[in-house]
Amino acid sequence: MTKTYAIGIDMGNSITSIGIVDTQGNIINKSSVNSSHQHISEYIDSIYNHLSILIEQQGGIDNIKGVGISSPDGNYFTGCVEFAPEHSWSGNTPIAQILADKLQLPVTLTNGANAAAMGEMEYGIAQGMKDFILISLDDEVCRGAVANGEIIYGHNIFSGKSGHINVHNDRGRVCKCGRKDCLEAYCSADGIITTALELLTSSKETSTLRNIPQNELTFENIYEASIQGDSLAKEAFRFTGDILGQLLSDLIAYSSPKAFILSGKVAKSNEHFIQAIEKSFKDNLLQIYAGKTKILTSDIENSEAIILGTSLLACNSKLVDA
Q1: Which residues of the chain have pLDDT under 50?
Q2: Angle 112-123/302-315 helices, nearest 10 degrees?
Q3: pLDDT at 210
Q4: So what's the pLDDT on residue 86?
Q5: Surface-to-core class of residue 62, CB atoms within 10 Å of its CB (0-12 exposed, 13-18 middle, 19+ buried)
Q6: Considering Cα of 216, then 217, then 218, then 223, what sign does the dihedral take?
Q7: Domain with 233 in it: what CATH number?
Q8: Number of domains in the chain
Q9: pLDDT score at 176
């Protein structure tokens, strides 16, 4: 029997998204589970229970090629999640093997940015590109890099931790990792909230954000205010775009990609933000690179790009030796 479908799983910090993908890259069935469980066995059981229903709806296990799963700290070579501080089962966890034993299917693990880059290269805005860098701007900031049509993993698998590049800002803002002035501390959703709070404190400018208790301010509040023309909210995005544009102008010197592809809810927030990135990028760029690299915004919803990318891994699964 020809195996028609692959399974892609996006293991987010709070929600795990699951999709059944056909050979043309269509997500034909989706579900989601809560990522927060006390024990890894409970988490796997939850995934298994939801997947069992989806698999049965597509004609049973004999129609499934395999499973791809992404985790922020997933090791492609070993199939282990090496560090998951947001989960109570944090530690070096062989999640690919555990899930494979449960499902009796081959399972391959990678991290979210690499999966999204694969999804973009096969089905999205990066089709036909062999050299590009995807920057995911969401609750976290990470990078998936493609050179000569291949994902760059690095010798220790964690080459995509660009959210923890130091941006040399003088604010001394503390990142969740414990270091100061990481890119993620500024360009993630939480980073924009922090910037808006700083502006509300340092400025007397009128803003609808002042009507919201500071401990209740969300990224969505700032986004909505910015598209309504709130100048303080727009400044939060301009400041963030300036930092990211400077970083991209530095990254271009490392690999000279054809494009930077921005994905995630922060990247897709508003045109004003993208304009700020492009201006900063152009202002800080070494002139020999001028006009040679585009900044593009993904047209695939971030979780769907990850599901598509991990489903491709399922079709080309890798045996692991954890």
Answers
A1: 318-322
A2: 80
A3: 97
A4: 64
A5: exposed
A6: positive
A7: 3.30.420.40
A8: 2
A9: 82
